[in-house]
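Issue: ligand-bound run for zinc ion - logging full I/O for the record.

Environment: standard queue, default settings, no custom constraints.

Inputs:
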Amino acid sequence: MFKMKKIIILLFLLISLNLLRSDNYKNKWVWIYGFDIQKEQDVEKIKEILNKAKKNDYNGAVFSAGLDSLCKKDEKYFKNLKEIKAYCEKLNLKLIPSVFSIGYGGGILSHNKHLAEGLPVKDALFIVNGKEAIFVPDSDIKILNGNFEEFTENRFKNFNFHDQPGEVSFVDQNIKKSGNASIRFENFTANQYGHGRIMQEIKIKPYRCYRLSIWVKTENLKPDGCFRMLVLADGRDLAPRSFNIPSTSDWRKITMIFNSQKFDRVKVYAGVWGAKSGKFWLDDWIIEEIGPLNVLRRPGTPIIVKDEESGEIYEEGKDYEQIIDPNFNLWKNFDRDYPKIKITSESRIKNGQRLRVSWYHPVLIYESQITVCMAEPEVYEIFDHEAKLLWENIKYEKVLLSMDEIRMGGTCSACSGKDMAKLLDECVTKQVNILRKYNPETEIYIWSDMFDPNHNAINKYYLVEGDFTGSWNYIPKDIIIAVWGGKPREKSLEFFNNQGFKVLVACYYDAGNMNDVKKWYEISKKFNNIVGFMYTTWGKKYDFIEDFAEILWK
Ligand SMILES: [Zn+2]
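Outputs:
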């Protein structure tokens, strides 16, 4: 009896000291991302991953597979979804849907593309010519010497700088898009950062939409993705874009859109950061103020058309026809015409009149990211009908909210002036309530970054007008935080522990080894709020499923 008691005490001690490792963690999950479940071969690949996971004592699979745009899916999608669900059940693996993104707005935007967050254009000039009002740029803004025709030795006129003339950057009179010369960059190891850039500071008008374009040619340029075009103002990147240019490519035109926001001066850059080898050429770099390309039409993005002098406001549908962009496209085709304003026959607007027009437009971040406005009520109607469909099809018990990297907000009339941290928390609370409307027992998980002051819960995050600091204060305390991001984050684990949240550690991210996972495991041992781990790959790399389990629970 005495011996038994001793064993029980010892066991209790071991458990409380976190020393009994096996089955310590409630959640042993794998993240399934990047597959198209419409395709039979992808369904087969998913089954292989599930088999491998089962063999290594995983107990859940988190799916990011368009599960929040179910009303847009066809029969085949549902047939395959059913098959995957049955397969998870057979293996006794929990199927956890990952849904409801704001930062990566694809799901919401497949319902209504005008729910993208908008940046304001204020009082752009239109001049009436007959039955049309035509956009006219307010001033003659140029990239001086953008055709790279004026130079002395290897130094180009009018640019604030280009990296190391004669060493990294050169005049090239043999290879050029037009005229007699272009600028060539090479020999990147001569710069300690691998820089090969050119910059000009230009005066612009605040709150206008600009289009930047440049011709680029590359030859064995490495690494991939090192070429960028940047617009900086007051240390902020107004146009965080990346371009997938092949390492060797003939002349191609790169076009991007940005909004000047409150700034009247910007530094425009083109070139490479962190380049290792190869060459590239630039030519015919231009900037132009543009009209209502991709004009957003929803309650939070009103258009105002007024007389330049009197300020008299005209009425859509009465004085002018509804303004829509027939070629609206959030992701591509920015090098094209934008709508004119069509004057109606009974209009108060007269021929020759000067109008000032305000509207909102979206911008693309990196290659494919479009953010949704959290303050537009229609967003929650979409979440609601989608949650109902999700419940009918999956009978979810646990859900991961896909609320990472919200890089725009606070700029359209629905959300401007709001406390961004509170707006984010209201959004999350609504998402939780919507999911629990169909299953009140739903356990909710959420990506950590937008609630982590050591990560993205900060002031002036990307194009956000406002501050996410404090966002951790008002989200429901029973949400489990899926901590992720870069290198192992001890500070983040400590932060969520101090705030009283439970934590799922989402680690791996496609390295060639398990070194970071081992570090995540080591730092996780310091905290007793960890409910589990998720094998997280963004590049469909599932080779380490077994190693991951060995380290963490086998
Ligand atoms: Zn908004």
